[in-house]
Amino acid sequence: MKRTVTTYxxxxxxxxxxxxSVASALGLLRIDSSSPLMRTTQARVGQPYGWxxxxxxxxxxxxxxxxxxxxxxxxxxxxxxxxxxxxxEPQHGGDVEITAFGLLPEYVGKGLGGYALTLAxxxxxxxxxxxxxxxxxxxLHTSTHDHxxxxxxxxxxxxxxxxxxxxx
Length: 168
What we know:
It is a single chain. The chain is 25% helix and 33% strand. The protein is of the alpha+beta class. It has a 7-stranded mixed sheet with strand order 2-3-4-5-6-1-7, with helices on both faces. Strand 3 (72-78) and strand 4 form a beta hairpin. The chain starts with a strand and ends with a strand.
């Protein structure tokens, strides 16, 4: 069995962001948790990497949505078409977790990931904080099961590693 390494990364100031080159046709569009696009897009993004979202039942989706009432769902769009997903979850104390980020398989490898992450991080910093005057930290985690360039993209945008866990 292959060992899984999970890397936790954070950004503690908005000026730590190192933006990628602009991909002019790329944008973000907020959608409601009840949108079927949220579920299908997240499932399609995560399917190649074994994300739990790829196999959730409708009941499991409903339980997840109810358990995370502050979570925001954003479509990554390319020329007004759905290209991926970003999920942001404001947490107490001014943290915002990027709980999901990724492109649909047909958009992977087209040079869009860096700018998509730039947009996601800017949106995370602009998110209304919970229990704080301002967002103080944006964080996420990735694992060896995610896209092979994910960790490098996160680090290139200015996220810093703060914890690594290994599991068999």
